[in-house]
From TrEMBL:
<feature type="transmembrane region" description="Helical">
    <location>
        <begin position="261"/>
        <end position="282"/>
    </location>
</feature>
<feature type="transmembrane region" description="Helical">
    <location>
        <begin position="229"/>
        <end position="249"/>
    </location>
</feature>
<keyword id="KW-0472">Membrane</keyword>
<dbReference type="InterPro" id="IPR032713">
    <property type="entry name" value="EmrE"/>
</dbReference>
<feature type="transmembrane region" description="Helical">
    <location>
        <begin position="158"/>
        <end position="177"/>
    </location>
</feature>
<keyword id="KW-0812">Transmembrane</keyword>
<feature type="transmembrane region" description="Helical">
    <location>
        <begin position="68"/>
        <end position="90"/>
    </location>
</feature>
<feature type="transmembrane region" description="Helical">
    <location>
        <begin position="96"/>
        <end position="116"/>
    </location>
</feature>
<feature type="transmembrane region" description="Helical">
    <location>
        <begin position="198"/>
        <end position="217"/>
    </location>
</feature>
<feature type="transmembrane region" description="Helical">
    <location>
        <begin position="31"/>
        <end position="56"/>
    </location>
</feature>
<dbReference type="Pfam" id="PF13536">
    <property type="entry name" value="EmrE"/>
</dbReference>
<keyword id="KW-1133">Transmembrane helix</keyword>
<feature type="transmembrane region" description="Helical">
    <location>
        <begin position="136"/>
        <end position="152"/>
    </location>
</feature>
<feature type="transmembrane region" description="Helical">
    <location>
        <begin position="288"/>
        <end position="308"/>
    </location>
</feature>
<protein>
    <submittedName>
        <fullName>Multidrug resistance efflux transporter family protein</fullName>
    </submittedName>
</protein>
């Protein structure tokens, strides 16, 4: 249950991404700076945290062992995740982006056959190729149905172009984030904690962010002071707090695709938190009756997803001990 709780707290802090990115776009800030500033500002903050914990040398040691793997999968997991989200914020409200982002619940489950899970047998741990958790996926579809219902009363307000520019980049991000995260878990093989892994991935993705920042400077000049401050808040709340919590939760269940899918499903709460944040910070209207019912459906789907995952693990554990 602890990984689920950590995942929900991560969803709370992740929600700041959608709200603040939308706020920056409404104030005229460039999506390029919104994306690159977050990770450029995260790097020194994370370095200080990991240094204070006495774990910096381990990060650089791991990166030196597999520099290309770190570069590629960090760019996928962070670069191809966050840049598309910021791009989408230029074309649609935070609620639509947060809602579409929940496709990551399905994306993570569908990628299970690409990885191996560790199964304990009488002769010791054995690696077998992961299988799509169909029961958990069914519960995830309930969450997704709630998300779709939540957006139903709002989607008609957007043009086809706005819908495509919102949806397609977020779909790309929904696959890139769990793919990069899981690949880096394989590369690290449990040798780094959540703080170290986030720092390593941030440093390894810096070439991508620096190139993006140079493009932003050439296209739009330097960012405004307000955008720098808001990007700093996103870096702390979402980049550090949320990412570390989420990575800590996924580390607890690594090697188990069903539990990993359940942890990833906790991110459905981002919709609830993002909707509340837009009402409070951006003075958006309160959700209507349809959206309120959809939020309840998301929560029910989340509970059922967690229940199915943990029940199956309990049965497997009893069988192994028999």
């Amino acid at each position: 249950m602890k990984p689920i709780v950590l995942g929900i707290f991560a969803a709370f802090f992740f929600a700041f991404t959608f709200v603040l990115n939308r706020a920056m776009e409404m104030e005229g800030g460039s999506w390029v700076w919104s994306a690159s500033l977050r990770f450029i500002m995260m790097a020194p903050l994370l370095f200080v945290i990991v240094w204070a914990r006495g774990n910096v040398s381990g990060v650089f040691h791991e990166i030196k062992k597999a520099p290309f793997a770190w570069l590629i999968w960090s760019t996928v997991g962070f670069g191809l995740f966050y840049a598309p989200l910021c791009f989408a914020a230029a074309y649609g409200p935070g609620w639509l982006i947060a809602g579409t982002w929940q496709i990551t619940i399905i994306s993570g489950s569908l990628m299970a056959p690409l990885f191996y899970e560790i199964v304990q047998t009488q002769s010791g741990p054995v690696k077998i190729r992961g299988k799509i958790p169909y029961k958990g996926l069914l519960m995830s579809l309930i969450i997704l149905a709630g998300v779709a219902l939540m957006q139903l009363e709002h989607a008609a307000q957007l043009s086809l172009q706005e819908m495509l520019f919102c949806v397609v980049p977020v779909l790309l991000a929904s696959f890139a984030y769990p793919l990069g995260n899981r690949k880096m878990m394989e590369v690290c093989a449990g040798r780094l904690d959540a703080y170290q892994r986030v720092l390593g991935m941030t440093l390894a993705s810096l070439p991508f962010w620096l190139v993006l920042a140079m493009y932003g400077f050439a296209a739009d000049g330097l960012p405004e002071r307000g955008q720098v401050i808001q990007s700093g808040l996103v870096a702390v709340f979402s980049g550090i707090c949320a990412t570390v919590l989420f990575f800590a939760a996924t580390d607890m269940v690594k090697g188990n695709m069903r539990k990993l899918a359940a942890v990833e499903a906790t991110q459905s709460f981002e919709v609830v938190f993002a909707a509340a944040g837009e009402v409070w910070i951006l003075s958006s209207p309160l959700p209507g009756a349809v959206s309120s019912a959809a939020i309840a459906l998301v929560i029910v789907g989340m509970v059922l997803n967690s229940y199915v995952s943990n029940k199956k693990e309990a049965i497997k554990s009893e069988a192994a001990n028999a």
